[in-house]
Design brief:
Length: 477
């Protein structure tokens, strides 16, 4: 189905700035971006702010920053739909002049009343065409909307959706829809066609909630004599409940994922797999995605958002990323004051600590919390772990540990490890019998990275302070 001239491929992402960018929107942006990059085409961004009551500049800024965070770049200057108002109004005037649209003076109330009076189902109100026939009020100065006049010979609208196959909509399901409100502002279905045609968009890839708009848009393309683009409607992202993804299921805003410590490349990788597959491969580099992406492999069925799988993908990316970059991301996306919170640690200590935890966390927010505990020392000791690992002899063992540490020439992890191994042999106990109480002393519980690494990051003096604190607790007990 894809056209043969690769360079003519032009796609766009057209969010409305009525809220922050959500997961489904980011997925649509990524699919468009991948499609453009795969075909060597162009990817454009248009902010659809025609809904003046609900559109806010702060949301435009937030959408732009979310896209940039996700690593999505654009090939042409941003189009702000409202800046094209004069052009839109010119095109509406053209349709009126050509008799392809007409002024409508009926209020919504009147339309609904007539519909109900004719005995129709009030849940599916359609315009009865009154002003198409009766133009007596034109020129009266009364406010009027503009309706598109569906040509009489249209029986059905048919289009080949690149994902869903042929879609046919009967004329009965359509009415003469409004293309401009009575205050002169054009409506979504009109502006989207005007702008997509102006930008020479070849493929419209968007959520399937827009399928019902497509026949109206096709009618407008025909009315203007524009080339009709290809359409590809992406399946919805559902929550675990099977309903459209909502805040009840998971965070829906991309910014929340940023602040909760998801790596942009991990979130993008997860979202691409949500409804697209290449065998059973789960983890892809950006380059692989660009090479492999095709609309043919997009699933027709809705995809269910699975936060656990996202965590698995994120943890996989965290494991593969250098401590230096992970730390930069934590400062940039989660806590700009993190370096201050880890005051007193050298860069080597910070990166060593990140390295200790990068195989053990699902998100960078988890990592930040763990780093702070390792840096500050535990607020309390886990009682269950204390009962399990602290015995009557532990106090004596820990005193021996402090003495052994004092005598060491250096406090590197391998030196610490050799010393503790030797000490446990000398005391006739298993290594774990001192390793676990030491872990509890250092981070408050017995579940954590290797104790030798923890000790060497914390340093000899601080380790001794924490061990003594635990000793004081044991004495109290
Ligand atoms: N502005 C529309 C939205 O945010 C998208 C329009 C389109 O992709 O055609 O849902």
């Amino acid at each position: 189905m894809s056209p043969s001239h690769k360079s003519s491929i032009r796609v766009r992402f057209a969010p409305s700035p009525t809220g922050h960018l959500h997961i489904g929107g980011l997925r649509a942006a990524i699919f468009n971006w991948l499609f453009a990059r795969h075909h060597g085409g162009s990817f454009l961004l248009r902010i659809e702010d025609t809904d003046i009551e609900r559109s806010k500049e702060e949301y435009t800024d937030s959408i732009l920053s979310s896209l940039s965070w996700a690593g999505i770049d654009f090939d042409e200057p941003l189009v702000i739909q409202s800046h094209r108002l004069a052009e839109h109004q010119k095109l509406i005037a053209q349709l009126l002049l050509e008799g392809k649209a007409y002024y409508c003076f009926c209020s919504q109330e009147e339309v609904e009343q007539r519909w109900a009076a004719a005995g129709h189902d009030p849940a599916f109100v359609k315009y009865d065409g009154r002003c198409r026939v009766d133009q007596s009020r034109v020129g009266s100065g009364q406010p009027a909307a503009v309706r598109f006049s569906i040509p009489d010979d249209v029986r059905e609208i048919k289009f080949d959706d690149l994902i869903r196959g042929t879609i046919t909509v009967d004329r009965d399901q359509l009415d003469d829809f409004i293309i401009a409100r009575s205050d002169g502002y054009p409506m979504y279905n009109f502006v989207v066609v005007a702008d997509d045609a102006d930008s020479r968009i070849s493929h419209i890839i968007r959520g399937e909630d827009h399928i019902s708009n497509t026949p109206k848009q096709i009618l407008l393309y025909r009315a203007f004599g524009y080339n009709i683009p290809f359409f590809a409607h992406l399946p919805m992202v559902l929550g675990q409940s099977g309903q459209r993804l909502s805040k009840r299921d998971a965070a829906t805003s991309v910014l929340d994922y940023k602040h909760n410590g998801y790596l942009p490349e991990a979130l993008c990788n997860y979202l691409v797999r949500l409804g697209w597959a290449h065998g059973d491969q789960e983890i892809f580099t950006k380059e692989e995605l660009i090479t492999l992406f095709s609309l043919d492999a997009v699933n027709k069925k809705s995809a269910v958002f699975d936060p656990e799988k996202l965590n698995w993908v994120n943890s996989t990316y965290i494991k593969q990323t250098s401590p230096e970059r992970l730390f930069q991301l934590m400062v940039r996306d989660i806590d700009p004051l993190l370096a201050g919170q880890l005051k007193g640690w050298t860069a080597t200590q910070v990166y060593a600590a990140v390295d200790l935890y990068k195989d053990r966390v699902a998100t960078l927010a988890d990592m930040v919390a763990k780093l702070c505990v390792l840096h500050d020392g535990p607020k309390d000791f886990n009682q269950h772990d204390m009962e399990q690992w602290v015995t009557a002899q532990t106090g004596d063992h820990l005193k021996e540990v402090i003495t052994a540490f004092e005598a060491l020439p250096s406090f590197d992890a391998d030196v610490v490890q050799a010393t503790l191994k030797e000490l446990s042999k000398k005391l006739g106990i298993k290594l774990v019998a001192i390793a676990q109480p030491l872990r509890i002393a250092l981070i408050g519980n017995s579940d954590g990275p290797g104790v030798f690494g923890l000790l060497s990051v914390v340093g000899r003096t601080e380790a001794a302070r924490r061990i003594k604190l635990l000793l004081s607790q044991i004495t109290i007990q």
